[in-house]
């Protein structure tokens, strides 16, 4: 019997409703069986004094950094810069609530487990790497968890997102930070005004006492700088340059003389030159003073072109001034300075150019271990042309491919069943390389011909690869030259790939 269209449509609707009901039931059961995890910021956990009536405060600094609260108002436009940071860190380990755990067990997970994770929200003012003021507010995020029941949802937490609750906490404690910071600055201002440092002795006493960790420390250092005499000004600044932050507040024309490691600052170099120390001897000391670890401070950190120009205008040798940089000296430059291989016509060590350093990698004879494929005229050596004409290196692979192609030929190789397996193994590869190298040497005219037609060479493969790539990597015949050369020196291919 054929169903009418209306009865057929009705049946389809009932089927769709039934499937939707089953899906909803399955989703509900899945939620009940899997349970959930929620988080909630607890305002009562905040450990800080009750917020007071502070709104804004006038401060002796300008604010830089990602955090720039508008409630810190600089007293003028030319005050020092202070960095404001705000971070969140764990303040301890999560604490499991024992009563909730007991209820969780007795109610077969109907009552969720509760734990408290403590955090510290830290607001800090730093200057020249020193913390001048810190506000720390502790709070906790409560977590609720149940395996089979969604009861944690009843505790008004954020489903599965602790970071969102931390953001809520951060907004909540901002007012506490504002009050803490402004109240502390008020106390430091009172202390600074009570101390009222005027003379160099009073300022020094303040900096070593209450001003050691105060937002008024930069202001006090500026006052100390202003006390400099009109004569022997550099000596005055040098005597105070060990005070943290002092050099950074100096004008550029004084600051230039104070930057650098002990005994190698501009003022030190000038003094030692006046005492008769040779400039090349000072250069050697500067190069050897470069630290092995990454530079944070203590070398020529902060030295700029403006500083360099001040020192050059004052008469310091340009070679020394140009080396007052955080750029690491190359091994070749260190070797040149320490061995005296690079000296000018007067016998003084000087800083070579990049081109001169590059030329230090190659020997000007054929007595090295590795022959250069290019002559001193920057053309391909005769033995390289012979290898290219013999098509050495055109087959894919290393010396194995060259050897197989030279001895058997591509078609002949297909007729020898064991060759593929033999050359594919470790022993076969080494034998192939050896055979390929001898074949390439023979095709290039023999070893004596290679040496006799070379007027430059290298002591090690690394120097060879660096020199060839830097000097000839842009030329049109470089690829052909390297294909031919690596048949004689198979290790060149890998070393070239590593050169940057």
From TrEMBL:
This is Carboxyl-terminal protease-like protein. It comes from Marinobacter salarius.
């Amino acid at each position: 019997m054929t169903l009418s269209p209306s009865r057929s449509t009705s049946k389809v609707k009932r089927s769709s409703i039934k499937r939707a009901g089953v899906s909803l039931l399955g989703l509900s059961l899945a939620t009940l069986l899997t349970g959930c995890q929620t988080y909630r910021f607890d305002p009562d956990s905040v450990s800080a004094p009750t917020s007071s009536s502070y709104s804004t405060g006038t401060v002796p600094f300008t604010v830089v950094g990602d955090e720039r609260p508008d409630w810190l108002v600089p007293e003028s436009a030319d005050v020092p810069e202070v960095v404001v940071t705000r971070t969140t860190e764990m303040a301890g380990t999560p604490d499991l609530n024992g009563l909730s755990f007991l209820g969780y067990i007795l109610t077969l997970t109907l009552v969720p487990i509760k734990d408290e994770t403590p955090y510290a929200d830290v607001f800090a003012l730093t200057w020249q790497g020193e913390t001048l003021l810190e506000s720390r507010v502790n709070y906790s995020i409560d977590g609720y968890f149940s395996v089979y029941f969604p009861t944690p949802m009843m505790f008004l937490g954020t489903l599965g997102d602790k970071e969102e609750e931390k953001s809520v906490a951060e907004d909540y404690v901002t007012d506490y930070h504002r009050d803490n910071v402004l109240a502390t600055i008020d106390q430091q201002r009172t202390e600074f005004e009570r101390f009222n440092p005027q003379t160099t002795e009073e300022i020094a006493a303040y900096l070593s006492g209450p001003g050691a960790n105060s937002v008024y420390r930069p202001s006090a250092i500026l006052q100390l700088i202003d006390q400099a005499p009109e004569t022997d000004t550099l000596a005055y600044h040098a005597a105070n340059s060990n005070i943290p932050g002092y050099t950074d507040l100096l004008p550029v024309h004084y600051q230039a003389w104070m930057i650098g490691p002990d005994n190698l600052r501009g003022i030190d170099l000038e003094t030692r030159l006046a005492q008769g120390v040779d400039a090349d001897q000072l250069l050697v000391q500067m190069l050897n003073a470069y630290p092995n670890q990454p530079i944070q401070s203590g070398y020529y950190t902060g030295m700029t072109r403006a500083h360099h120009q001040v020192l050059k205008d004052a008469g310091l040798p340009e070679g020394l001034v140009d080396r007052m940089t955080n750029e690491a000296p190359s091994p070749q430059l260190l070797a040149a300075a320490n061995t005296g291989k690079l000296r000018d016509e007067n016998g003084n060590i000087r800083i070579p150019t990049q081109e001169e350093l590059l030329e230090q990698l190659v020997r000007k004879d054929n007595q090295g271990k590795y022959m250069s494929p290019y002559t001193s005229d920057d053309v391909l050596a005769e033995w390289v042309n012979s290898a290219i004409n013999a098509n050495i290196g055109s087959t894919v692979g290393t010396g194995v491919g060259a050897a197989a192609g030279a001895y058997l030929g591509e078609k002949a190789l297909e007729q020898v069943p064991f060759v593929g397996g033999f050359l594919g193994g470790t022993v076969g590869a080494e034998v192939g390389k050896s055979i390929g190298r001898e074949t390439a040497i023979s095709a290039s005219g023999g070893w004596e011909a290679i040496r006799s037609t070379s007027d430059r060479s290298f002591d090690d493969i690394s120097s060879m690869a660096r020199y060839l790539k830097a000097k000839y990597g842009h030329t049109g015949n470089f690829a052909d030259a390297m294909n031919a050369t690596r048949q004689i020196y198979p290790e060149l291919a890998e070393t070239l790939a590593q050169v940057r």
